[in-house]
Amino acid sequence: MSILRPFTCDDMFKFNNVNLDPLTETYGLSFYMQYLAHWPEYFQVAESPSGEIMGYIMGKAEGHCENWHGHVTALTVSPDHRRLGLAATLMKFLEEVSEKKQAYFVDLFVRVSNKVAIKMYQQLGYIVYRTVLEYYSGDPDEDAYDMRKALSRDVKKKSVIPLTHPVRPDEVD
Fold first, then answer.
1. pLDDT at 23 over 70
2. For residues 116 and 47, what is the distance between their CA atoms, to the nearest angstrom?
């Protein structure tokens, strides 16, 4: 059993067990604080009854006009708590927040090599909108999929018509 609750500053001292996963993008404390200050409604924690952080989601609202959308900046669940549906629950939460903000879609970036995550996102209704070349730094750099799910405001589903060609990171709006 777990509860969803808002992320707090104190959680930054308790979430290392979740962030140690090699596929989890980690950021500096100031980055987490910026999200907490600007988009607190998009930052949630899944917590066990004993107070352990099982996972979290961090996102934001961005864009203009028909590009107004919710964005998943980070979603991660600790290895000990995977396959319990926590990631799907956290994604549903972010989608509901985005619906309340009248967003057209939710998007996220995922490494093309992260087949497990890609499959999960597809099961949640996301499609590969485009490939972003060399999005993730490394040796070598790795491409990302920009995955999207249309929300109710996008009646004609224009936001999820896939691009036919890859883009570079500087072309991502």
1. no
2. 23
